[in-house]
Design goal:
Blueprint: H1 4-14, E1 21-30, E2 33-40, E3 46-49, H2 56-67, H3 77-82, H4 91-96, E4 98-103, E5 110-114, E6 120-129, E7 135-144, E8 155-161, H5 171-175, H6 180-186, E9 191-193, H7 196-207, H8 212-222, H9 230-238, H10 244-392, H11 400-454, H12 461-474, H13 484-487, E10 488-490, H14 498-509, E11 512-514, H15 516-527, E12 537-539, E13 560-562, H16 568-578, E14 582-583, H17 587-592, E15 596-597, E16 603-604, E17 610-611, H18 631-676, H19 680-683, H20 686-704, H21 707-755, H22 765-776, H23 787-826, H24 828-831, H25 841-901, E18 906-907, E19 912-921, H26 925-938, H27 949-964, H28 968-978, E20 984-992, E21 997-1002, H29 1009-1027, E22 1040-1044, H30 1052-1064, E23 1068-1073, H31 1078-1081, E24 1088-1094, E25 1098-1104, E26 1106-1107, E27 1112-1113, H32 1117-1127
Helix pairs in contact: 8-29, 9-29, 10-18, 10-20, 10-21, 10-22, 10-23, 10-25, 10-27, 11-18, 25-26, 25-29, 26-27, 29-30
Length: 1128
């Protein structure tokens, strides 16, 4: 163990005049320290001694509040690490003085109890001094208004004084309602701010704290319980966060511009790729349209070409026919000569035949020829006579007398036929008229049957149809317009009077009744409508005020039943008023009554007017119209209809029978007329046959008796045959020649007509050559007889070709418009107000040209420049930082090793050793691959060859995507590859004064707890020494190091060792410790105070005297014994 005296002397030599050390801490209303508490702090070091919970950490948190950026502060971290059940502390709990948490009896909620309610304020002041007499005082004031308890409610102000200062000077601030303006006026020399950063920068500059890392290290040191292994400690506390993170962030940030430039290139390319095919299709469309125009021109010239070819073919045909005509004319002359020669020989033979006795034979033959003609005519007429007789059932007589009788019978039958035909036609006309009358009556009866079946009414069908039309027109049902006859019937026991009553009531029964509601509509409709028949209707809504008169017992009215309903009363009154007729049994009673009827149907309307209408029988029920139902009338009309149907059928049969008889008689009359037109001599053939036979015998006998005549006759026969053949051949030749002449005439006329036809338009050279080629390709050679057929074939092929071209044009236009639609859908802003129709093609193609000539090259140039100048610069910088990281870390470690080399690590009587930190590359796979990816992305980066730009960009984008990813695994990878501190492993080497290696420490593994603590503490001291800078004396400008119960679980040997290490590095140690560690720590300090608490809520400070000579606190013996017991 190192002697405290020696260590203290060494420490004294490390003091420097410029070094700032804490000299005083003041707190006002801070936690359980209510009011003002003033703690002088020895420049040699200081202890805050007290039991757990007394308030030691509360005072040390005052240091944190004064020195540490608010975002880092972790109040009472040491205490909470030791006891996780402890209450979290914050500015509010310190300002309010939170001292307990109690459960509310009523609500059951846990509530914090405060010492200071309502508006309150707190203040802290920490004084630093150096040997040059300079003072720096850090002051902070806090306040809360009302009952506000939120962190955001805390108001805070920061001051830095460069003179001695006492918190009592702030008394006016607390009494002036926290007026900051007055505060600043009260301390014009103070550096006053309401933000921590400028305040921090100010005191760091004054106190020689060179970096934010130093503040962080001081804060973490204050609450350090376990410094971790060597690697973690050195990476977190010795090395700054590498610039690779900043460069990577800049790379990711600036990559957005490059990505946008690349996207512009991609977009421009896609736009070109979208529109270029449209332009190609448009060019193809133009080509197809030219092709179609040429084909249309050919099609327009087809008719003219056909007629032109027809003219040419006709000219050739006429010329050919002329040659044929010359030949046929010669053939006619040759055959005429042949015929003339044969005819001359025949005439000579006939002359010889006559001279040899052939005149008589010629006469016989001439007679025979005439008789044979007569024979043929008589045989024809005889056949007609035989046929007529056969059809008449007669036989053709063989004698003139019998034939004459036959002709008489035939004439008589013809005459009889004429008379019977007239009679039959008259009878048929009569029967046909009866049939038509029956058919008319049948139609009417059928109509009545249908009407009677449709509804139970005896009213005639035409009247019912008229009512149906009226009801439909005014929009009511037919039952709302009853006929009187439908509401009145003759009582069954008075049926014998029904016929007579029907005659009296017939007209009234065919009247319609209409109530008041429908009266207006009915009257208007009937007034404007042609009904086609007579109609009477009665308005029943307003009954007449007739006085009812008595009626006789035989009154017609009493023989009637009136149907119950809305019209019954009106109808009863009307019948009594108008139809009180006496029904009388004798004519005497009829004559004496005023109005009366008889069963026979005679009616007396008044004393003077009488009537009897026998156009129909009084008992003919078919004309009756009264009654509630029509079953009886329906039966009558059905029977009538059946009777009429039978009559129609019978009359039709009789008419057909008469017609058939007429046809038979007419046929016989025609055959009889044939016979009447013949005479016996016209059918008698026997005399002619006998005479012809006689002549043939005479000719045969004459020829057989004259050999010379027979030979001449044979020669004449042969010569006639030659003449006939020659004549036949002449006629054939003549016909052929005439035919050729006719063809020449016809063709010449056609040719002249075509030559004069003004509608034949001259053809263009294109039409001539094109149609020549197409006609020549036809399978059949062009001739006059197939010219139209070939033309049709050519025209059909042209139409098919044009249709195919049109389909091609349509496909091109569809593709063009589809491309335009794609462009407008993908880039509506670029498309602007251009529509997707073909009419917009010039605008789209102008845009395409601009893209090809200006847009795409410009975008590519911008992309290439950014890729070269910006992103690759960042990437190159990242690569450089990564590659230089080891060198930078080694340089940093050299500085740390310089600090470590100034203070022994282990020291004994025989040996003094020092700690040296080495760094070795960890050879991480992720880092190696990352560097390779960077090199790949940088390949060809500084060349002008743009061929590799896309590949470099894609490689770069893959890197950027991984660096920017928020995926936890990717974020871990990002930390691994960018944090160069992670790329090396730190090894501690213990060496003696001669440089011989004594021990190796690799992250403290395999070593005892004391060795690891010593190693970490030594590194911590070196880190603080390094981070807090130095001066010409090699000590830090900022000396205070605050430790909160850092050694509560360490043994005395390590505690002394750690304090010695810090002291040797030139630090002022300010330590909060329990009583047990006091005796171990007291040689390394110059003062102490005792922190205590009463009633768990009132903390206080009691200064303890320090014996500088004996380097120990002046504690009562019982306290020292108590500390010794706790330590053991």
């Amino acid at each position: 163990m190192i002697s405290p005296d020696i260590e203290q002397r060494q420490t004294a030599s490390l003091f420097a005049r410029e070094q700032f050390r804490m000299t005083r801490l003041q707190v006002y209303n801070w936690g359980t320290f209510s009011g003002l508490h003033d703690v002088p702090i020895s420049e040699r070091g200081f202890l805050f001694v007290g039991r757990s919970g007394a308030g030691k950490s509360t005072l040390l948190d005052a240091f944190s509040a004064l020195l540490t950026p608010p975002r880092w502060i972790d109040f009472n971290a040491a205490a909470r690490e030791a006891d996780r059940s402890g209450r979290d502390r914050n500015l509010v709990t310190y300002i309010r003085g939170a001292w307990a948490e109690q459960k509310d009896g009523e609500s059951g909620e846990i509530a914090t109890r405060y010492l200071r309610a309502g508006t309150t304020w707190s203040a802290l002041a920490l004084t630093y001094q150096n040997a040059l007499g300079q003072s720096v005082v850090l002051v902070q004031v806090f306040w809360l208004r009302g009952n506000a308890n939120g962190s955001a409610d805390v108001k805070r102000h920061y001051l830095v004084m460069e003179r001695a200062f006492d918190l009592r000077e702030l008394e006016d601030f607390g009494q002036s309602n926290f007026d900051i303006r007055k505060l600043k006026q009260s301390f014009p020399e103070a550096f006053a701010r309401d933000e921590f950063r400028p305040y921090c920068e100010r005191f760091c500059r004054l106190l020689g704290i060179e970096s934010e890392m130093a503040l962080r290290l001081l804060h973490k040191t204050q609450s350090a319980k376990n410094l971790g292994d060597l690697n973690t400690f050195l990476r977190d506390f010795m090395l700054d966060k590498p610039e690779t993170f900043e460069v990577a962030d800049r790379l990711v940030s600036e990559f957005g511009e490059l990505n946008a430039a690349h996207q512009a290139v991609v977009t421009a390319r896609e736009q070109v790729q979208t529109l270029a095919p449209a332009r190609e299709q448009h060019q193809r469309r133009d080509s197809l349209m030219l092709q179609r125009n040429g084909l249309d021109e050919l099609r327009l010239g087809v008719d003219g070409y056909r007629e032109t070819r027809r003219i040419e073919l006709l000219k050739e045909h006429v010329a050919s026919l002329g040659v044929q005509a010359n030949g046929s004319e010669g053939e006619v002359g040759r055959r005429q000569s042949t015929l003339d020669n044969h005819a001359a020989i025949l005439r000579d033979l006939e002359r010889q035949h006559r001279e040899a006795g052939g005149d008589q034979i010629e006469q016989w033959e001439a007679e025979k020829s005439g008789l044979e003609g007569q024979r043929t005519d008589r045989l024809r007429k005889r056949s007609q006579a035989e046929d007529a007789c056969k059809k008449l059932g007669w036989s053709l007589p063989d004698s003139p007398q019998a034939f004459a009788e036959l002709l008489g019978n035939a004439r008589q039958e013809v005459e009889n036929w004429e008379q019977r035909s007239n009679d039959s036609r008259a009878e048929q006309f009569r029967l046909d008229r009866e049939k038509k009358d029956a058919e008319t009556a049948f139609s009417q009866a059928l109509k009545e049957v249908q009407a009677l079946q449709r509804q139970p009414s005896n009213i005639p069908a035409d009247m019912l149809e008229m009512r149906r039309d009226i009801a439909a027109a005014i929009g009511i049902s037919e039952s709302a317009l009853p006929f009187v006859g439908e509401l009145v019937e003759v009582k069954p026991d008075e049926a014998e009077w029904q016929g007579a009553i029907e005659r009296v009531l017939h007209g009234f029964a065919l009247s319609l009744l209409v109530d008041e509601r429908q009266y207006s509509a009915l009257a208007n409709h009937i007034n404007t409508t042609h009904l086609g028949q007579r109609l009477v209707y009665y308005r029943t809504g307003r009954p007449e005020t007739w006085q009812a008169k008595p009626i006789g017992g035989n009154s017609l009215v009493l023989k009637l039943n009136v149907k119950e309903g809305a019209y019954a009363d009106w109808l009863q009154a009307e019948l009594r008023q108008r139809f009180d007729y006496a029904c009388v049994d004798s004519i005497q009673s009829f004559r004496s009554a005023d109005r009366a009827i008889t069963r026979e149907g005679q009616v007396k309307h008044s004393k003077t007017r009488h009537e009897k209408d026998d156009r129909r029988s009084v008992g003919d029920r078919r004309n009756w119209v009264l009654g509630f139902d029509n079953r009886e009338k329906l039966g009558l009309f059905q029977a009538q209809a059946q009777e009429l149907a039978d009559t129609i059928s019978r009359l039709g049969g009789e008419i057909d029978k008469l017609s058939d008889q007429d046809k038979n008689r007419a046929t016989r009359a025609m055959q009889c007329q044939t016979l009447v037109n013949l005479q016996w001599q016209e059918i008698d053939v026997l005399p002619l046959l006998d005479r012809i036979s006689t002549i043939e015998r005479q000719i045969r006998e004459a020829r057989e008796g004259n050999t010379t005549l027979l030979q001449i006759s044979e020669q004449i026969g042969e010569q006639k045959k030659l003449v006939e053949d020659a004549d036949k051949e002449l006629r054939q030749a003549t016909r052929a020649h005439d035919s050729i002449l006719d063809q020449i005439k016809t063709s010449t006329q056609k040719l002249e007509s075509l030559l004069q036809d003004a509608s034949i338009v001259p053809l263009t050279p294109h039409q001539v050559s094109g149609l020549d080629e197409r006609f020549a390709k036809q399978s059949d050679a062009v001739r006059l007889d197939n010219l139209d057929k070939v033309t049709t074939s050519v025209e059909r092929a042209l139409n098919a070709e044009i249709e195919e071209v049109n389909r091609g044009i349509g496909a091109c236009e569809k593709e063009i418009e589809a491309r335009f639609a794609d462009f407008k859908r993908q880039w509506p802003m670029d498309a602007g107000d251009m529509d997707t129709s073909l009419a917009s093609a010039p605008d789209f193609f102008a845009k395409l040209v601009r893209l090809e000539t200006d847009g795409l090259p410009a975008y590519e140039q911008r992309f290439f420049e950014l890729l070269q100048n910006q992103s690759h610069q960042n990437l190159a910088a990242l690569s450089t930082y990564l590659n230089d990281a080891r060198k930078a870390i080694l340089e940093r470690m050299d500085l740390v090793n310089d600090s470590l080399g100034q203070v022994p690590f282990n020291q004994s009587a025989n040996q003094r050793t020092y700690l040296h930190i080495d760094a070795s590359d960890r050879q991480l796979v992720d880092v190696k691959e990352f560097k390779q990816e960077i090199q790949q992305a940088l390949s060809h980066a500084w060349t002008e060859d743009r061929e590799f730009a896309e590949a470099r960009f894609l490689a770069l984008r893959r890197l950027v995507d991984r660096l920017a990813s928020q995926d936890p695994e990717q974020k871990r990878w990002r930390e691994t590859v960018l944090d160069v501190r992670q790329h090396v492993e730190f090894i501690g080497r213990e060496i003696d004064e001669s440089g011989v290696e004594v021990e190796i420490y690799r992250s403290g593994a395999g070593k005892s707890g004391g060795q690891r603590q010593k190693l970490a503490t030594t590194c911590l001291a070196a880190a603080l020494r390094y981070q807090l800078g130095g001066n010409d004396h090699g000590v830090p400008m900022y000396a205070p190091v605050v430790l909160d119960e850092a050694f509560d679980k360490a043994d005395n040997e390590f505690t002394a060792l750690a304090m010695n290490i810090f002291t040797n590095f030139g630090f002022q140690m300010v330590v909060a410790t329990p009583l047990k560690s006091v005796m171990t720590l007291e040689p390394f300090i110059g003062g102490a105070c005792f922190v205590d608490i009463s009633d768990r809520r009132v903390s206080g400070v009691l200064l303890i005297e320090y014996d500088g000579d004996r380097q120990r606190l002046k504690l009562p013996e019982h306290a020292r014994e108590e500390a010794g017991v706790e330590a053991s």
